[in-house]
Amino acid sequence: MKTAFKLLMLLGIIIYLGFAFTRFAEESDYATCGGVDIIIADSTHAGFITADEADRVLRNSGLYPVGKRMKNINSRQIEDALLKNPFIKEATCYKTNGRRLNIMLSQRLPLLRVMTNDGKDFYIDDRGYEMEPLGYVADLIVATGKVDTAFTKRYLVDLGLFLRDNEFWNDQIEQINIDESGKADLIPRVGNQVIHLGRPDSLQKKFRNLMAFYEKVMPEVGWNKYTNIDISHTNQIIALKRDKRDKLN
Questions:
Q1: What is the reported pLDDT for 27?
Q2: Residue stretches of the chain with pLDDT short of 70
Q3: Are 163 and 149 in contact (CB under 8 A)?
Q4: Rounded distance, CA 90 to CA 35, Å?
Q5: Which residues of 153-171 are buried (b: 16+ CB within 10 A; e: fewer)?
Q6: Which pLDDT value is given to residue 28?
Q7: In Å, what is the CA distance from 22 to each residue of 9, 17, 101, 113?
Q8: Residue 183: what pLDDT?
Q9: CA 78 to CA 61: how far, in whole Å?
Q10: Best label site of 100, 176, 178, 209, fewest CB within 10 Å?
């Protein structure tokens, strides 16, 4: 008898919990959304996506959830609408019991702006993913010239990462120009010379040589004495004055 009674009690509890959960779910479905919380991953880094920008996307697409019944809010539609923005890498949307909608976004952080000879204009992230500007403007190094997707992924991303991760070079270099042979010239912010990098490889050695040149030679002769500095070779620097060429091993 006691065993049967316990089984009946357990069955009753299960039925009650099922009923309560169903009733709560139904009430939640018919409740209206009271707010939306948007969380941006990597928000401490300079990017284009903010909570206000995501909010604007939802309003413009007619998917803004506040005031709508929870059951009528389609999380997948909201995710798809947000992912149409090329600067949003991932979007996750889910409802909470508090009549709110949570949206978590992972953004693509622009690494360089690219303006090619054939008129293309886009940003790239740290994996070479191309993003149309969409009216956004960022103070980034600009790559110009003969740039295509293959060159971007093989060389330009590594060069962009190297410059970004070095505070001095990130501040010093303002433009990268790629010629028809795939060699790079760098335009600095300080000084009126052109820095010939050559093929964008062996970056650690080439920039170490350039830093030594900056520290040992520039203070003695001034920033504007040389019109060209060639660091394309890893074992020497060739600096071109107005009337002659100096070679430093």
A1: 46
A2: 1-29, 43-46, 242-249
A3: no
A4: 21
A5: eebbbebbebbbeeeebee
A6: 56
A7: 20, 8, 20, 53
A8: 96
A9: 9
A10: 100
DSSP letters for 48-113: S--HHHHHHHHHHTT---TTSBGGG--HHHHHHHHHTSTTEEEEEEEE-TTSEEEEEEEEPPP-EE
CA 10 to chain CA centroid, Å, is 54
Q: What is the dihedral of CA 199, 201, 202, 203, to 10 degrees?
A: 100
Quick one: which of 106, 32, 102 has its CA closest to 72?
32
What pLDDT, on a 0 to 100 scale, did the predictor assign at position 245? Answer: 54
Question: What six digits make up the tokens of 109?
Answer: 């952080």
Task: Output the six-digit token pair for 95.
Answer: 């409802």
Q: What share of the chain is helix, strand, coil (3-state, %, to 5)?
A: 35, 25, 35
Q: Hey, what amino acid is at 105?
A: L
CB atoms within 10 A of CB 5: 9
